UniProtKB/TrEMBL annotation:
Gene name of the encoded protein: idnO
PANTHER family: 3-OXOACYL-[ACYL-CARRIER-PROTEIN] REDUCTASE, CHLOROPLASTIC, SHORT-CHAIN DEHYDROGENASES/REDUCTASES FAMILY MEMBER
GO annotation terms (biological process): fatty acid elongation
Family indicated by similarity: Belongs to the short-chain dehydrogenases/reductases (SDR) family.
Pfam families the record matches: adh_short_C2 (PF13561)
InterPro entries tied to this protein: NAD(P)-bd_dom_sf (IPR036291), Sc_DH/Rdtase_CS (IPR020904), SDR_fam (IPR002347)
Official protein name in the record: Gluconate 5-dehydrogenase
Gene Ontology molecular function terms on file: oxidoreductase activity, acting on the CH-OH group of donors, NAD or NADP as acceptor
Length: 262
């Protein structure tokens, strides 16, 4: 019995502080809720106080310790100072989930350059910059068992007509996952990724409701359905938990088998 308890305790996040970027909606919110349920002090993040406050209140009412961080990740210049101020206010997060991701479905020819720059700015550069400062803050705070978990995508390693930009950013993040794993693993911080497949989040509603593309997505998936948003939780808990102490530099694919078919 004691062995079982200590095994289960390996999945507890009690005493940990987790910043989940983009946790006002979608998969980020699912991950934040799961971390709170596993005992973590959670920092919800997004651009809008009016979205974050009621979510924080909801989690607090359920007994969680919660703070919020309002920061537009497109504003790269203010990121270091803003992050430092967050650490001073709530303590240094020892779990960082890089979840924010802007989606653009377009060929290179049809994409406006401003939209391309914005996507790369937010998805790639902001994530890299936040990871750099967050990892340094973990080192300065002498964090052991630091965790960086980055949301990539099954769209990263694949190429599809009409979807040229987003996969470039996501594949860059896959490289970042491995680079951080090598650089920080020996200093007590692991870096891993989660590559979601097709989740029925609000941001996918247009695709899911498309009379042609919606059924194509379902038809190609071995499980024959979209993922429910809460199906991201298990991978996110595992990778942030003590149970994943020897998992470093890898990307867990959560796609129902979509990417192993052709
Ligand atoms: N959904 C899927 O099927 C799927 C598949 C593969 C990969 N992914 C990846 O998983 C992650 C989450 O996807 P999702 O569908 O859950 O996304 P989502 O519903 O669009 O949520 C995006 C979150 O990011 C925040 N955000 C967007 N731009 C921001 C900015 N400039 N600064 C700060 N926060 C910003 C939003 O907050 P505010 O608007 O409140 O500021 C929101 O909380 C993304 O990295 C995505 O690429 C998702």
């Amino acid at each position: 019995m004691n062995t079982l308890r200590s095994y289960q305790a390996n999945f507890s996040l009690a005493g940990r502080c987790a910043l989940v970027t983009g946790s006002s909606a979608g998969l980020g919110l699912e991950i934040a809720r799961a971390y709170a349920a596993h005992g973590a002090h959670v920092v919800l993040h997004g651009r809008h106080t009016n979205k974050l406050t009621p979510l924080a209140d909801e989690l607090k009412a359920a007994g969680a310790q919660v703070d919020t961080w309002e920061q537009d990740l497109a504003d790269l210049d203010s990121l270091p100072d803003s992050y430092q101020a967050l650490c001073q206010r709530v303590g240094t997060p020892n779990i960082l989930v890089n979840n924010v991701g802007v989606r653009l479905r377009s060929s290179l020819q049809n994409a406006a350059w401003d939209d391309i720059e914005h996507l790369l700015h937010v998805d790639l550069l902001a994530t890299l910059k936040l990871s750099k400062y967050a990892a340094q803050a973990m080192l300065d705070a002498q964090t052991r068992q630091g965790r960086i978990v980055t949301l990539t995508s099954i769209a990263g390693p694949l190429a599809r007509p009409g979807d040229a930009i987003y996969p470039i950013a996501k594949q860059g993040l896959a490289g970042m996952v491995r680079a951080l794993a090598v650089e920080f693993g020996g200093q007590g911080i692991t870096s891993n990724g989660i590559a979601p497949g097709t989740f029925a989040t609000e941001s996918n509603a247009v695709l899911a409701n498309d009379p042609v593309k919606g059924p194509l997505v379902v038809g190609r998936n071995p499980l024959g359905r979209w993922a429910k948003p809460d199906e991201i939780r298990a991978a996110a808990i595992f990778l942030a938990s003590p149970a994943a102490s020897y998992v470093n530099g890898h990307i867990v694919v959560v796609d129902g088998g979509f990417s192993i078919t052709f």
